[in-house]
Design a protein that fits this description.
By secondary structure, the protein is an alpha/beta fold. The protein folds into 2 domains: about 1-145, no CATH class; about 155-395, Purple Acid Phosphatase, chain A, domain 2. It has helices at about 5-30, 30-35, 35-60, 65-115, 120-145, 185-195, 215-225, 240-245, 245-255, 290-300, 320-325; strands at about 155-160, 170-175, 200-205, 230-235, 260, 265-270, 270-280, 310-315, 330-335, 340-345, 345, 360-365, 365-370, 390-395. It has a 6-stranded mixed β-sheet with strand order 1-14-2-3-4-5, covered by helices on one side. A 6-stranded mixed β-sheet has the order 6-7-8-9-13-12. The radius of gyration is 26 Å and the shape is elongated.
Length: about 400
């Protein structure tokens, strides 16, 4: 059933916003609604979208991969167009109202002195048309950008507590790849090729790696082939549970990538060492409360010595709140996809949910967090929030 969550989501959004689109056209943009072509298009968009969702579901069930990919993309295109129209049609309705007022005013002036402001009418008509064109083209651009390659950029994080021997340690952070239709093994290979120029010392995977678990063995083998000095480590995300955690664990057990689930290990360089722990995922929405993090992090850190530099891998960034209270130096997380809409390097939803740590660098006291926007997505739409595989470099203050 969970395989069809995106289909249910797309259908609900399609029908909801399709209905709103029709209402907004009918009551706020009457001059357009009177045109037969506009009315037919308005009905056609949600109809085509719903049919594409149905085709998506059937091809999923019968495992016709090429048709699944094509129908899913078409359904998503229809969805974002409807959302874009829902956002712009109220504004165009206001412009239509302004034009109606202007025309009444001009008619009155014409009766008095014969003067008509034609330029104002043309401007208002053009503005009304431009608004939905701008929003729909921007939305479609967001779908296109979702298929762009992941950025691999160095992020320097500074710590007082970092041992000198680990100054300059480079960690490639892979999260939320969602290998299947929209991100492929070829895309992962391209990202790893970019990352190889940075010579990462360690590679970590913070969950939701493959929605098609048959791709997971090859993915883990490719990650290991980068030859990171300190090895490769992973932890679980909610999609590992959705797709079958028993199967995922078997794949990790047979791979060179060490899976850490509420456990950790000590890594050493000369006489210096630091502790790496991996937190389990609560699996379900609403399950990631304070008690979950307290119990899980305490168990994860049970093997850590006193006054040791600690790195925590957590699929969800909410772990920072409790991790900071028990002295975890750094947490790497994903899960949020940055909301898939961003502005100036931050999630567009940052002001709404400031304590969800949606994307980027955060800290509480001396405890730091980097939340990756992720390499992939199950709903391919990104606007101002590109896919990424950050290269975290630890620096001694």
């Amino acid at each position: 059933m969970r395989n069809f969550i995106p289909l249910l989501f797309a259908t609900i959004v399609m029908l909801f916003f399709g209905g709103i689109e029709l209402l907004l056209l009918r009551f706020l943009n009457k001059s357009w609604w009177e045109k037969t072509a506009v009315r037919r298009t308005a009905y056609l968009l949600p109809l085509l979208g719903t049919l594409s969702v149905l085709l998506w579901g059937l091809s999923e069930y019968y495992q016709i991969n090429w048709l699944t990919s094509a129908s899913a993309i078409w359904a998503i295109v229809m969805t974002v167009m409807l959302v874009a129209l829902m956002a712009s049609l109220p504004l165009s309705g206001v412009v239509h109202f302004m034009r109606w007022i202007a025309e009444r005013f001009d008619s009155k002036r014409q009766r008095v002195n014969g003067a008509v402001n034609g330029e104002r009418r043309i401007f208002l008509k053009g503005t009304a048309v431009a608004l939905p064109l701008i929003t729909t083209s921007t939305a479609l651009g967001g779908v296109t950008r979702a298929f762009a390659g992941a950025r691999v950029e160095k992020k320097k994080l500074f710590f007082e507590h970092l041992p000198n021997e680990f100054d300059g340690l480079r960690i490639l952070h892979l999260s939320d790849i969602h290998l299947r239709h929209y991100v492929t093994l070829g895309d992962l290979e391209e990202t790893l090729s970019k990352a190889s120029s940075f010579s990462p010392d360690m590679i970590v995977l913070t969950g939701d790696i493959a929605d098609d678990t048959s791709l997971l063995p090859d993915a883990l083998a490719m990650v290991d082939q980068l030859g990171a000095q300190y090895g490769c480590f992973g932890t679980l995300g909610n999609h590992e549970y959705f797709r079958g955690v028993a199967r995922v664990r078997q794949v990790y057990d047979r791979s060179p990538v060490r899976l850490l689930v509420n456990e950790g290990l000590t890594l050493q360089s000369g006489t210096a060492c630091f502790y790496l722990g991996g937190l389990d995922d609560p699996r379900f929405l609403g399950g990631n409360g304070p008690e979950f993090y307290q119990k899980g992090i305490d168990k994860t850190l049970a093997g850590a010595g006193n006054d040791i530099f600690t790195l925590l891998l957590s699929h969800r960034p909410d772990a920072l709140d409790y991790a900071s209270s028990v002295g975890v130096d750094m947490t790497l997380a994903g899960h949020t996809h940055g909301g898939q809409v961003g502005f100036m390097g931050r999630s567009a939803f940052e002001q709404i949910w400031p304590h969800r740590y949606l994307w980027g660098h955060y800290y509480i006291g001396k405890s730091q967090l980097y939340t990756s926007s992720g390499m992939g997505h199950w709903f391919p739409f990104r606007l101002g929030c590109p896919p990424e595989a950050p290269l975290i470099e630890l620096k001694k203050v």
